[in-house]
Predict the structure.
Amino acid sequence: MLFSSMTFVFMFLPIVCTAYLLARKDLQNHILLVASILFYAWGEPRYLAIMIMTILINYIGANYISRSKNAIHRKWLLGITIVLDLSFLFYFKYFNFFIENINELFKTNIDFVKVIMPIGISFYTFQAMSYLIDVYRGDVKVQKDIYKLALYICLFPQLIAGPIVKYHDIDEQITNRETGFDKVNYGVKRFIIGLAKKMLIANTLGAVADKIFSQSVENFDALTAWIGAAAYSLQLFYDFSGYSDMAIGLGAIFGFKFLENFNYPYISKSITEFWRRWHISLSTWFKEYLYFPLGGNRVTKSRNYFNLLVVFLATGFWHGASWNFIFWGLWHGLFIVIEKITGWHKKTGGWLISLTQHIYCIFAFVIGWVMFRADNMLYAWQYIKNMFGLIKEHHIATELGYYIGNTEIITFAAAIICAMPIFNRILETPKNKILHTILNVWLMGLFFLSAVQIAASTYNPFIYFRF
């Protein structure tokens, strides 16, 4: 089920919220769990068994780990359970990729049935592993109530596309949390902001990016290539941060406090800073559960650089079973290592240095997004060459106006302005009654426009549903 659908906004959500808020406190978790299972089964009923098996495997594995006093046994139990978790992820997400590459590399003809990836498997698998590792490390107590563990893994606000909620961040909230008017009020407003990001900005700019990226690179010039790259960069940010806003808002309605997933990443002055601001839940997950176990920065410099490259290789591969995601991850990892060697990310100075750093960062991540968006690395390479005027022969059949009109220009401007921390406190309740009224009217207007777009649009999934 999509957050940006009539069914969810006008049927599922009101029913669940009403039932939850009117129910006794001891029944609220059960209502959320049933709602979460229905939410997932609505679109992926045949894959519900995979999620249930993930819950059972991690429940049993964590219980055995907590009971064992033998360090070696605990490590084996941890390893076996993680392998089982990753085996589901590998089969459903990477099986096709590996068989296709084996056939290509060894000129074989292994016949296989293509596997369809269940929506959200990357997210709920990482959440399950977070619980397991937290129990192994002794950071949290083992969850004896399987229904509470199931609620953590399949809680519908963040089930499909994150943010990835680590167990130690939400352990206490599963059992003890409070909701009330202020939280519901904030949650509804945050949800509306996220919905507007998706429907009014991301979808509009996504149409521009799709038109351009669907063309052969010889069919458009360098300016159009940059517009396409910029449109996709903004589409991706507003699409994913919009989903995160909706998830955080829904969490607040039900009394949960999810950590922020984005912090104005496009104002960054280095790729190091960019990854402190972009998809924070994923970057911190890899930091806590991969980077630190590899030794982090408590090792030699060369080993530290290796650790960083491994983390970003894993980050790229997590996003998808395709070479362009792998190169995208290594692209970012390479910049992180270079910045660490040169100290570029720590360099301070006047406005000129600051501007140079910001321009450098924009070039780096926009080119990276081209790799991310392209169907393959060959197209990505040709597209990037076109951006810098290195495609000599063009067969331009359409003018720039075909790709972008007045509505798109206005949306571009709004997207750029809102990507800066100008309205970062917009949801704080103004003390002035007039400002408070203006804010509420503005939010109602956003919701109305978003609802109109939902009614008028066809299937519009979030980009991160692919991952």
